[in-house]
Amino acid sequence: MWGQGKDEFSAQDWKDFYTKTLASNYDTWDLNGFDQELLFMAIVKNQGVDEVLASIAICDFDDFEELRKYKPWVAAFVVREDLRGTGIGTAVLKLVEQKAKSYGINQIYLWTEGEKPFYLKRGYKEVEQLIKPGRVIDVLTKSFTDL
């Protein structure tokens, strides 16, 4: 699971995250809200069985205290490993950006470890770099008012 083995995420954190998403209202977003998270999944039927192709979320908080000055965030963005490089990630990211714009969000943030070129090619700009023991975290943003 994404985030597994990272100090800032416990198994209980992930269980709480996914449980909370089940009760989310996907029709609205409170621009002044806090502790909001909406998880989206790309699912396809394969021989009658649902297969998750990718997941992505919008949330208005970050687990790193140093980054809580920014919001909202693209988070939990995972594409099934065998489908990476096929365009699914780009399509899912575009869809969540469109959803964010529909909520009235004008700017969104994300952080990544090692995938910065992917986001730069899709219009994201560098904000800062956070150095943690054994980790380099690039913080990026995309403004929808510049488009």
From TrEMBL:
GO MF entries: acetyl-CoA binding; N-acetyltransferase activity
One GO cellular component term: cytoplasm
Pfam families, per the entry: Acetyltransf_1
InterPro entries from the UniProt entry: Acyl_CoA_acyltransferase (IPR016181), GNAT_dom (IPR000182), NAA80 (IPR039840)
Protein's name in the database: Unannotated protein
Annotated ranges, domain N-acetyltransferase: 1-146
CDD domains tied to this protein: NAT_SF
